[in-house]
Amino acid sequence: SKRRCDEHSTTKAFLPKMLELNHGHIVTVASSMGLFSTAGVEDYCASKFGAIGFHESLSHEIKASDKDGIKMTLVCPYLVDTGMFKGCRIRSSFPASLKPEFCVTQSMRAILHRSGYDLAPLVYFVYLTSVFSPLYSFLPFEAIVCMYRFLGADKCMYPIPCPEEGADEQQRG
């Protein structure tokens, strides 16, 4: 997508000077949907998987260069209450959508404290990844589908309203 190309071009423009000075901070904003996908938003999930892959690859490149002054932060918020996924429904035991202000505060905290990752809310993300990530490694796909159905995540994006005509692409994600 155009956004991915812009991120690559911007990073390519700034990274050489960062490497030369051994100083800088690169922030990648993705989504928890780049880690766990669902039906109906394939293009969105693919772009977020791409952003996370770009971030991980770039992190390896910087580590391989032995430059410890360049920091990397990956922001992967859970569902944010922006209206983009208005109507998204998931099991009520899951946390409600996050307020944008909370995500900004958490992201800035991660950037300023150089913690590397802002997976807001952290407690939810740690639970999500510690429970589900290992399952993806050894369970057959049909078992994952059953888990998604139990959680209500298999159709949580149905129906997703179409973005309003003329809406700015950057505002939609």
UniProtKB/TrEMBL annotation:
Gene3D superfamilies: NAD(P)-binding Rossmann-like Domain
InterPro entries linked to this entry: NAD(P)-bd_dom_sf, Sc_DH/Rdtase_CS, SDR_fam
Any single GO BP term: retinol metabolic process
Parts of the chain that traverse the membrane: 119-139
Name by which UniProt lists this protein: Retinol dehydrogenase 10a
GO cellular component, one term: lipid droplet
Gene responsible for this protein: RDH10
Domain of life: Eukaryota
One example GO MF annotation: oxidoreductase activity, acting on the CH-OH group of donors, NAD or NADP as acceptor
Keywords from the UniProt entry: Membrane, Oxidoreductase, Transmembrane, Transmembrane helix
